Fold:
Amino acid sequence: MLGCSWSLATTPLSLNKVKSCALVAAAVTGFAAAAAQTPSDKPALPWGGDPPAAPAYARAAAITALGRQIFFDRSLSASGAMSCATCHDFANHFAPANSLAVQAGGAKLDKSGTRATPGLTYVASTPFFTEHYYESEDDGDESVDQGPVGGRTWDGRVNRAREQAAIPLLAPNEMANSSEAAVVARAAAAPYASQMRQIYGDTIFTETHRAFAAIGEALEAYQQTPEEFSPFTSKYDAFLRGRTQLTAQELRGLDAFNDPARGNCIHCHKSQLSPVGRLPMFTDSGFIAVGVPRNKEIPANADPNHFDLGACGPERKDLANRPEFCGLFKAPSLRNVAIRKSFYHNGVFHSLEDAVAFYATRDTNPERWYPVGPDGKVRKFDDLPEEFQRNINYEPPFDRHAGEAPAMSAQDIADIVVFLRTLTDGFDAARKSVAATRP
Ligand code: HEC
Ligand code: HEC
Structure:
């Protein structure tokens, strides 16, 4: 998380506008030279590369089409009423349509979840989880340990979308299948069963484990389709491509977002073209304890002893004995964030304004966010047991104290919110894909 910030001012791609950049001189030269290229229309994505041979391509296309059907198939749940798309709504960039902090699932759709449902756009490029990430080309310095990064879900407990798909299919409070065999039996009765046989062989449904893995593979392939999951059609993308201008307020918001002395958001939510001209993902996928307030809307929180500690558990098991991971959650991409109706891992905020203002006044005016006890004291970080509160992040903009001025003014916050709205896909109609209509 290197502090390299620059201001775009009014001309996109004008690299003479670089304001301040904590890179060594040699790297800056490389940065400027590389970034001066026009950003690639087709950003390099993990599934990119040389066009595969025709039969392999046809097979991949068939698997992707199968995955799309599975993603929207409600019969694949114990309730018969819940598909992946029930929570990951197509019309909302695969985030929930409602404003509930957590969604309910299960055979009778009455079992509540414990975490906010993330949107699924741009998550395909998340790196695998690693405890020590050394950032490479993008910052020009490989020697800095950026700490834990990557993986899927809020705690990074699985690496691939195919492993991730098994979680909701089998979770008692989500699609609630009792076993892999139950999922496979439902798929065997689905309209796409014949396609599965065609792709994976006639005996596929008699081999439970292989069939279950095929369902995961197909869901993964679908979630990797750039047209639907990584379209890069936001106003900000059009701006970076030199196809549109941002308004004065949007530019002010971008400036405050990038300014290390104000938002410093860029530190974790990357907003710049990479040195080789890749469009930014608005996350470094790093793990941070932001310390958002406890959310009473989550039924599990009625138990005062229940805590969602993120990377150290309870969902994630492998880091359970590593107290330094308690309270840490993965930074999500801010692309399409403006359409979300609940923010952060526990969905505690329901407006983008609050989600941004929290960064400004968490430490200067904590009484705005946390409960005040009978003794009149603010119970700061009330969703993290005291023993883990040393993990809380205090980097800018979290470097202020009670009584000091917040790092961001009310105007900065309003401007950042307006800028974040430029990250919603669908602005650049010329680039809208042919495919993306709801099945
Ligand atoms: C009941 C609501 C619900 C359903 C149904 C559901 N999900 Fe999710 N999804 C969630 C929640 C909640 C999370 C966050 C889980 C966590 O952090 O532990 C999530 C996380 C994810 C992630 C990780 C995203 C990231 O940012 O790393 C992916 C991918 C995903 N879901 C895909 C799917 C697929 C595929 C299906 C269908 C097989 C599905 N989901 C069904 C609620 C749901
Ligand atoms: C030190 C790293 C870091 C910095 C700096 C940072 N963020 Fe975040 N951001 C995170 C992490 C980690 C999360 C998820 C935390 C959680 O859910 O507990 C997050 C979550 C968010 C969310 C909620 C997204 C969602 O899908 O629910 C928004 C909005 C957001 N950040 C905006 C900003 C803005 C605006 C700034 C600058 C004022 C900023 N962030 C600065 C790491 C950071």
